[in-house]
Amino acid sequence: MTQMTYAEAARMGLREEMLRDPAVWALGEDLGYEGGMAGQYKGLQDEFGPDRIVDTPISENTIMGAAVGAAIAGTRPIAEMRFSDFAMCAVSELVNQAAKARYMFGGQARVPLVARMPIGIRGGIAAQHSQSPEAWYTHVPGLVVVTPATPADNRGLLKAAIRCDDPVVYMEHKGLWGVAGEVDEDDQEPVPLGVARIARAGSDVTVVSWAAQVAVALEAAESLAGEGISAEVIDLRTLWPWDREAVLASAGRTGRLLVVHEAVRVGGFGGEIAAEVAEELRIPVARLGGARIPIPFSVPLEEAYKIKADRVAARVREMLA
Amino acid sequence: MTSNLANEPARVAAMYRKMLLIRAFEEAAGESFFAGNVRGSVHQYIGEESIAVGICENLRDDDYLTSNHRGHGHSIAKGAHPRAMMFELFGRVGGTSNGKGGSMHIADFSVGMLGANGVIADGCTISVGAAQAFRLLGKDSIVVNFIGDGGINRGPFMEALNWAKVYELPVLFVCENNQIAATTTTRLVTAGEGIAKRAESFGLPAHTIDGNDLFEVDGTAARVIGEIRNGSGPQLIQAMTYRLRGHFAHDQAGYRDPAEVEAALGREPIARTEAWLRENGMSADEIAAMRAEVDSEIAGYVAEALAAPWPDEGTAFTDVQDVGAPVRGEAVQ
Q1: Does any CB of chain A come closer than 8 Å to the CB of residue B131?
Q2: Which of A151, A80, A91 is CA-nearest to residue A117?
Q3: Among A296, B161, B300, B302, fewest CB within 10 Å belongs to which?
Q4: Gap between the Cα atoms of A161 and A76, Å rounded
Q5: Which of B136, B158, B171 to mutate to probe the A interface, most A CBs <10 Å?
Q6: pLDDT by residue (tens digit) across B222-236?
Q7: Strand locations in A124-221, DSSP E?
Q8: Can you give the pTM of this predicted structure?
Q9: Angstrom distance (rounded) from CA A231 to CA A204
Q10: What confidence tens digit (pLDDT) does each residue in A69-82 have?
């Protein structure tokens, strides 16, 4: 086991896949000299050359659209969008083209691309650089949506996304770039898509989350444990497909479900999970998510948006009362 | 420009036949639409046939083509089979997408036809990426992107021109300038000096030709495609033409001056090619026989399509994705 950051682990996963398959390449802004926003591409252009780590113009439509064409033509491109906010410039290429090509051409096309678009609050980058629009893409048939929460998963899930024959929306959380964790360098296997991780076992309530919010849920579970409340925390890892079986099994055991996400609560993916569990198990369900406001800039305003551990713990207490 | 084609009457006849096939397909598609047998939108290529045929005759099966909403002619010219295309228009088993795509999503990957496209100019960016993949994979294939004059005002077109030149990609952009964007006269909504100047400002050689002149299209395509395959980088052909019908079959195009349409009929490509063939040894009987043969071929496909089975309902739920595929029981609830 080696300690490394979320960004370093992603870099390791990408490098391993590029060594393994010459058809894997990445395109996006500032991948060479800068090495990506968090160094997740650092040194790779020197190692693999400018045709496989491609510095592009600021042309989001074409970063995504070129990835669609290149994927159809037999390569495995990673379209680096830098921010999920910027990826909104390329929704047609992702939603109308990548997600639809296989279906509307009657199975003739496969589009094995990774649309890499970091989400979330990093601190002080406000309304156009902090959004968490993961639910949008779960709504689109044809797409896989991945939200890694740990360094080990950011290596293993990225590898799985690259090997996947379907287009994958890969949403790293910007607040996690520098967070370190244990990674088993010898284990080169991808982390399977669609399989959740039990981040903490418990018996009184099931708390489902993903990306940076998993750590918040774990913090809440720790404080609840001091009060004799045992919370099970599930890191969903993949939003589409989401691990319905794991969530239903856990919620069936604990009898209560709380879904927590950083994204705006209204129309968030928590609603889908809560509805599914309520329909299936007829147990109490609840959601915690962001207020329906843009992410603000100033420290106290940004803090006011966040769903913190004390709020998660308080909601659990209410459910148990 | 004079092309070598003038020395090859047999080749002209073959290309003429393909143009007739496109024309007959489009007429039949329109009739089938009004008969209620084809649903949705049918964007006919009538009056522009010489462009697709003149360009695609100079391509290989392993060259790629991306198209737009008006893609039937491009598909036939690239080698997609009109029988499977007709079945697709009718939504039947045996269609190019087995009924999942329809008119705007006809594709035949086996001949490098990567699909018509319902979103204007989205084919531009797909094209440059496919060309980038060819380079990575060490192939000497090229990509042709067909776009209309209306499409040049979308951002992806301008991004893709820049991108293609920055990486010197083997892409040929073909702008079919029929001078009207759906129902709006393009020049009224387009600033600057037009498509060729836009391309030149990005460093692409741009060639403006009479798209209704099969000989000029073929000659330009032969030269430019050869140059691109030999590493010239991207180029653009602006083929001037005229859409003889409305934007789609049910558009009567009442916004146009009848005199303009009348004048355009005098320049339409099939009659011009036919006149050349008559002057160069083909008899009226031979031409009539060829027309009858093509009409009968297409009529046969229409009859077959009408009789062909509808797709099984279950196929609506296939070919979506492997990971997280729809569960049929859930999907039909």
Answers
A1: yes
A2: A80
A3: B300
A4: 10
A5: B136
A6: 999 999 999 999 999
A7: 144-146, 168-170, 180-183, 197-200, 205-209
A8: 0.97
A9: 6
A10: 999 999 999 999 99
